[in-house]
Write a structure and sequence with these properties.
- InterPro entries: GmrSD_C.
- Keywords: Endonuclease, Hydrolase, Nuclease, Signal.
- One of its GO terms (molecular function) is endonuclease activity.
- It is a single chain.
- This protein has 9 helices and 11 strands.
- The protein is α+β, with helices and mostly antiparallel strands and 299 residues long.
- It has one domain.
- Strands 1-5-2 form a 3-stranded antiparallel β-sheet. A 3-stranded antiparallel β-sheet has the order 3-4-11. Strands 6-7-8 form a 3-stranded antiparallel β-sheet.
- A hairpin with a 4-residue loop joins strand 7 and strand 8.
- The longest helix is centred in the last third of the chain and has 14 residues.
- 35% of the residues are buried.
Amino acid sequence: MKIQVKYVVVLSTLLFSLVARTQEASPGSSTQAPTAQTQAPLYQQYYTVNEAETEKVTVPTKKATFSMAADLSPEHLLQSAQVVVVNLLKWLLHDEPLSIPQEKYLRKLHFGRWINDPTDDTCMNTRARVLVRDSQVDVTYRGPRQCSVEAGKWQDPYAGQEVTEAKAIQIDHMVPLKNAYLSGAWEWDYKTRCLYANYMNFKPHLVSSGAHENMSKSDKGPEGYLPPNENFRCEYIRNWVAVKAIWHLRMNPVEVQAIYDAVKQYNCNLNSFKMSLDGLAKQREFIEANLNFCIVNKR
């Protein structure tokens, strides 16, 4: 996933007059409009998180710092450490067309299904494991084998509502599979995409959400969907960009504009958008070490 970088764009100096520019055909092609296979405008530019520009921040040593920067308030500074972080709101602008998939997106073909991990000594698939992880109480199961979750207590962060029936919960991919596919995952092999679909090493990657909100979101980016629970919107945007950074996924100009607007409108804490460089590396190391997860467990 090597990317040619044209120049750097920093959030604080962005002039977001950029609007997604589309064309009816790529250079050198016929004048016919794009086919349904592209499933996306032909953006002439795209963005990625600028990992080359880092900074040191002081964080408390008693709190985990592998994902997001911790509380930086003065009372924590007596027991603290310097951590090198990447600012998820500093982006690289790539002045070249966003690549277009060669195949029409199909969930099962390109990302597979929920996988049952035999190493956890249960018959639960990824969906069930996320439901158990996120329930605020011990779950109950359907049937004596305890493969499928029936009830529990979940807080839908999108709607800000409590849900107690598992059938009313859907597991949302923070960056939806189709969005990931169009953002670069179409270039991956199947085993990488299947791992992405079942990835539990970064908790915000998979979200227990109410069925209504998950269907409302569908495959939309922040330009088309933000949770109705406004108290969760900053965290939602942060998690969105974090997933894109971990997996080297690209962001189109309209998506970036929406992220910028949301951060400004909801006065998001900019410190929460800082991710430790070590944590980012550990996520990618885990991905590399588990690329055969779906192949080994396919049955």
